[in-house]
Amino acid sequence: MDKKSLTAPCGLDCFNCELFEGNLTSELSELIHTKMGVPKEEIACRGCRQQDAKHFHLPKGCATLDCVKAKGVALCCDCEDFPCAFLAPTADQAARYPHNMKVYNLCRIKKVGLERWIEEEAGNIRNKYFKGKFIVGKGQAD
Predict the structure, then answer these.
(1) Which of 54, 90, 98, 132 has the greatest number of beta carbons closer than 10 A?
(2) DSSP characters for 74-142?
(3) How high is the pLDDT of residue 59?
(4) Which of 128, 126, 91 is nearest to 11 (CA)?
């Protein structure tokens, strides 16, 4: 698995996503099929770059992917306009989707490099985001 190509331009770690084909469980696949009516063969994702953002969870594609392609950069943090409105955090569905991790991930990638972020940090931030506790004035509690 090439984790570099499975790092979305916005900084999300597709390789850690529960919809990624290597992580998708039959239970989750069945749940999505049953609750959302998505054909089972369309549920597994290969990553936004590999599928050109054509997947059931991106019904209108991805403006961020279109933007980085148009600007000729690999990651949003390589862009002169970083950070921009495409990466703005939002409370809507934050407990369910990892969209609020984007800017943090991209800042870490810019600071420590993509390889180190993939190996040392990508999985940890997702766990902390969904399971960690927030302390005012400190951020994440250990």
Answers:
(1) 98
(2) SSGGGSTT-S-GGG---STTTTT--GGGHHHHHHHHHHH-HHHIIIIIHHHHHHHHHH--EETTTEE--
(3) 80
(4) 126
CB atoms under 10 Å from CB of 94, counted, come to 14
Report d(CA 91, CA 139) in Å as an integer: 16
Helix (H, G, I), strand (E, B) or coil at 45: strand
Low-confidence ranges of the chain (pLDDT < 50): none
pTM assigned to the model = 0.83
Whether residue 109 contacts residue 11, with contact meaning beta carbons closer than 8 Å, is answered with yes
Scored b (16 or more CB within 10 A) or e, 45-84 reads bebbbeeebebeeeeeebebbebbeeeebebbbebeebee
Residue 140 bridge partners (DSSP): 134
Predicted local confidence at residue 127, as pLDDT: 66
Tokens of residue 96, six digits = 């369910």
Where are the domains positioned within the chain? 14-140
